């Protein structure tokens, strides 16, 4: 076939040479027969045939792909040039590796969080069902995704038409320890059809089916591949072995395949459990039969021919009937009105659903932009270096132009050299990016799982970054080829005044660009660091140091629901009796734990005036809470032993409650009632507490009402305590364990420190501060190097001029001042442009800041001073070199 000639070039070339030689020999033999000598006959035959070399070149072109052959020759030439300049190559490759590595690391995290599809068959066919936001829902929200109740899910499954199969799911934390210290694992509650709809087959045993739902609930577990390896050592005899789930023994039914991590991008499940098992695995406090417990997500696979929009429309059409059928009984009119106004919809779910994605997608996009700016600054530096190298090769390039070399070809060879360096740097950056992304993933918190393996998106992104880097630093020196003249080859020095001025102007512009972009990055870094400092140094309204947070779990016990509250109070009394404990309290909502409990309330003041408190944040605590947390009571009294179950109900409110809802009026003696609660069943406000953070450290102070947990007879199978140590938190932890060991039955404990909880809650802010600071420092260093390169180039190009100036009487100080003026002009221009960029660009990061304005003048001034100082420091060596020029030597060169 004709295309095979491209793969047989050597043989076809040899055949052509033989044919050509045979033709020449035949023509020469004819001339020799006519009496011409062999040498003359050979020459005459060649003249008759024409340009032999041109004929050979034409034949070679017919047997090659010209563009590919030319590109390959350019690449080989580029590799030879790179080998001749190893130091230049090392600087370029290292710079590109750092730039592409930083970009690749952030993009790899984004890819895992946002772009990568679920590892299942045809993920593009999946869609999730939810209540479109924003819609006000009242109830309990637990687990993730907490979109729907079980009653809603069952009606949706019965009435939907757009899905060939559907399943419900939720995430949870389960305890694997039968007693003593808790040992937690990540659970995935699933309906029976999940594995069938996703087409995920277990590697061992079996998965759940629809037969495992309902009244014939199968109390078994399907474990993940990683959990199987970690907990059972990959033992193939794991099927049938017992696994403790919240003190309930369940047999292992199957092992999921290694690539299936679940449906929550950013978190990997350990144990999958059937939804129906939730009734017995949570100590009888099941969420299945509670109509106001939002704890499920619903997904399905669309039928052939159905779109997400069509499925959403059908779900919205059946929504009124579903919400009417699932309306919880005994609710007030407002609840009924809000509930019946809810809608249903569907959206694409190829990438799953992710709690982690909502927290980190925007910060990662912002960091990707910052790393892109660092790459641009690095490329500007490399362009400056490449210009200097091209200047040193001007004579070589001019000679090539003078002997007939095409400008386009020379330019292509220079770009090929840049491309080879960029690709090598990108390969190193790809490896570096994987290492950095693994490290960043570890800093995001315990339990975070991101699938960081390379895929085509990461490779394509890094390759694209490499090509952009190649164009950014390779195009400027390549374009200079069009302005070079072949007559330059005739000059002894190969330099011209115009070329020197042009090169200096380009390098000056690059240095100004670097300073401007660096100023924007350094300003952003100062803002993020300042924001983190504000978060860490603010007064949260409590003293976290020395406080332990304790979770006590009795889900596996047989304690009747009516006796749980007293059980927890008895355990609290045992803790308080220890000398290692200064104060302790039961608490419904643990501080800075992310959980919230709020509801509308009404307040009636002693004067008879009434005030609405539409969003009151609630908490139930006992008498020692304010002492344990170090929160001040400003007036009135705290809870005490007289506030028993049968005593009048009492409450304590905080300053934000008084400020926001009572307009500063004295709250003592006022009566607080929950929404539609009779006045006589309400709570007398007996105290005013100082403001304190509730769910997280970033929030403003919420209006909070504290109720006495000792007056609430209801309790769940898990309770929380805050315990302040007398001296050592470790000693207090031992006292807590001893108190639990005396209880019958013995609860399972999880003990952590409040400072560690606060630190974990600031993971995102710490990540932003650290990475932005690293980017800002790197950008500032690169900008300083750029200023140094521009001034060093200036001094080198104007060395003769400086020598002549000094020969004519200019002092060394005047020469130094000349170089410093250039540095000041470059730094000043960059700072002015950078300040404008910082003022405009910092608006993008406003929502990530705390206690600091985006266009902060102090941050901009500090960044400007830092970069000006670096520019001055970078100008010292070129200025000193300029002042040491020997005038006599300069005159001799002239």
Structure report:
The chain has 894 residues and is an alpha+beta fold. The chain contains 26 helices and 25 strands. The strands form 5 sheets. Strands 1, 3, 4, 5, 6, 7, 8, 10, 12 and 13 form a 10-stranded mixed beta sheet that branches. A hairpin with a 2-residue loop joins strand 7 (242-245) and strand 8. The longest helix is centred in the middle third of the chain and has 41 residues, at 497-537. 42% of the residues are buried. The model is unreliable at 1-7 and 486-499 (pLDDT under 50).
Give a brief description.
By secondary structure, the protein is an alpha+beta fold. 51% of the residues lie in helices and 15% in strands. It is globular, with a radius of gyration of 38 Å.
List keywords for this structure.
single chain; 894 residues; alpha+beta; ten-stranded mixed sheet; six-stranded mixed barrel; 26 helices; 25 strands
Radius of gyration: 38 Å
Percent of residues in helices: 40-55%
Distance between the ends? 66 Å
Low-confidence stretches: 1-7, 486-499
* Backbone structural class: alpha+beta
Shape category: globular
The major beta sheet can be summarized as: 10 strands, mixed
Number of helices: 26
Arithmetic mean of pLDDT: 84
Write the layout of secondary structure elements.
Layout: H1 9-33, H2 38-49, H3 52-62, H4 66-84, H5 86-115, E1 126-130, E2 140-141, H6 150-159, E3 163-175, E4 184-190, H7 194-198, E5 204-205, E6 221-223, H8 225-232, E7 242-245, E8 248-255, E9 266-267, E10 271-274, H9 278-281, E11 293-294, E12 297-302, H10 308-325, H11 333-340, E13 345-348, H12 355-392, H13 394-402, H14 407-443, E14 448-449, H15 456-479, H16 497-537, E15 547-553, H17 561-576, E16 581-587, E17 598-604, E18 610-621, H18 625-629, E19 633-636, E20 650-654, H19 655-661, E21 671-674, E22 683-689, E23 704-708, E24 718-725, H20 729-741, E25 748-753, H21 754-761, H22 763-797, H23 799-807, H24 812-841, H25 857-883, H26 887-893
Parallel strand pairs: 2-11, 4-10, 6-8, 18-23, 20-22
Antiparallel strand pairs: 1-12, 1-13, 3-4, 3-12, 5-8, 6-10, 7-8, 9-14, 15-24, 15-25, 16-24, 17-18, 17-21, 19-22, 20-23, 21-22
Helix pairs in contact: 1-2, 1-3, 4-14, 5-12, 5-14, 5-15, 6-10, 12-15, 12-16, 12-22, 14-15, 16-22, 16-24, 16-25, 17-20, 22-25, 23-26, 24-25
